[in-house]
Amino acid sequence: MLLSISSLTVWFISRSCAPGFTVVKDSSIVESNSLLFKPVVGHAEFQTKMHGSCASDTVDKPEFREICSSVAHLFKLPLVGH
Questions:
Q1: CA–CA distance from 28 to each of 31, 42, 70, 81, 82 (Å)?
Q2: Domain ranges, ordered by start, for the chain
Q3: Which CATH code of 3.30.70.660, 3.40.50.720, 1.10.10.10, 3.30.420.10 fits the domain covering 10-75?
Q4: Is the dihedral of CA 7, 14, 69, 25 positive or negative?
């Protein structure tokens, strides 16, 4: 099944809680960070299995829409992820 960028972005935003990223330009790391935010659709069991995080870890964190402007540039770059 192929996902469009827009549907993949919606899935990511609604279900993620602990994304990390590294931006590489000309073989050099130019930016790297990890974020913790409250999942829009609530905390799911896979988040605990994947990251070891649980609902209490994100209860007081902002939702993605509150931090979106700080990472918006990432959605214009090529993406390699897991």
A1: 9, 36, 21, 18, 21
A2: 10-75
A3: 3.30.420.10
A4: negative
Token pair of 56 as six digits: 């209490």
Buried b (16+ CB within 10 A) or exposed e, 27-36: eeeeeeeebe
**Which parts of the chain have pLDDT scores under 70?**
1-16, 51, 81-82
pTM over 0.70: no
Q: What is the CA radius of gyration of the chain?
A: 13
**Per the structure block, which two tokens stand in for 75?**
């959605």
